[in-house]
Amino acid sequence: MKNVTKKRTKAAFLLLILTSVTLSITIAVPIKSQAITPIEPTTKIIKIKYAVTDDAYINKGHPNTNRGSRNYMVVRNTYGYGGSSHWAWESLVKFDLTQIVLMKHHLKDAKIVSATLKLYYYRWKDNYPAGRELSLYRLTNDWSEKTVTWNTKPSSASEATDIAVVPNSTGVWIKFNVTKDLKENLENSLFGWKITDNNYWGNTNIPIVFFRTKEYGSYIPTLEVKVQVTLPHQKFQDDGQAIAVLR
């Protein structure tokens, strides 16, 4: 009965934690008490999509100004004409990953398969940025879009998580692979990421890349995660209660 109880608990937790995931659920309501009918566990890949909770951009030239309420965010290299270095704009994004943390804690066999950060690139300014590399860094302490500025910006990892190339046309999603961060540093990835342009420009009209934010209402920054879980495929009919069977 101890094993039965454990499997019931695991099944109940899956039903609770995966409420945002589409699963086929069959409810078995026994007419009378019967023996347990065992069914082999099944491995599933669950796709979870997270909308951004905080997004903002910060400006090195205006280090005390907060820009967390705009419907866009921007990225620009810091080096302008003659090597002046106060032109940097960086974008910040953060997601609520509590669900995955709980899943990993309670379901020891849960494995993150992949994780992709998507930003909607809709505009450029001053110089055509196609082909420029944008670097993504994991943030290492907390921040809020309502208060963050250049002078209060969170610290970040020293090594870039991923690099994406600005495409030839606007109106597309730019994607960053953040699988490694979520696999190896899940608890340390709760503060999000920053996007920068580290490629030296050294002239006037530094290329500017524009992304949409959640304030726009659509095309908002998104984190797509695939998680592999083993479903407790066990059908209980020993107590006259309705038990969900995950398929």
Annotation keywords:
247 residues; mainly beta; Jelly Rolls; 2 domains; 6-stranded antiparallel beta sheet; 5-stranded antiparallel beta sheet; 3 helices; 36% strand; elongated; disordered C terminus
Task: Describe the protein's architecture and organization.
This protein is 13% helix and 36% strand. The longest helix has 16 residues, at 2-17. It is elongated, with a radius of gyration of 23 Å. The chain is built from 3 helices and 15 strands. It is mainly β and 247 residues long. The strands form 4 sheets. Strands 3, 5, 7, 10, 12 and 13 form a 6-stranded antiparallel beta sheet that branches. It has 2 domains: 2-41 and 232-246, no CATH class; 48-229, Jelly Rolls (Sandwich).
On the 0 to 100 scale, the average pLDDT is 83
Spans of at least 5 consecutive residues with low confidence: 19-33, 234-247
Give the fraction of residues assigned to helices.
10-25%
Radius of gyration: 23 Å
The appropriate CATH architecture of the largest domain is Sandwich
Terminal CA distance: 23 Å
**Hey, roughly how much beta strand do the residues contain?**
35-45%
State the name of the first-level CATH class of the largest domain: Mainly Beta
**How many beta-strand runs?**
15
Number of helices: 3
For the record, the count of structural domains works out to: 2
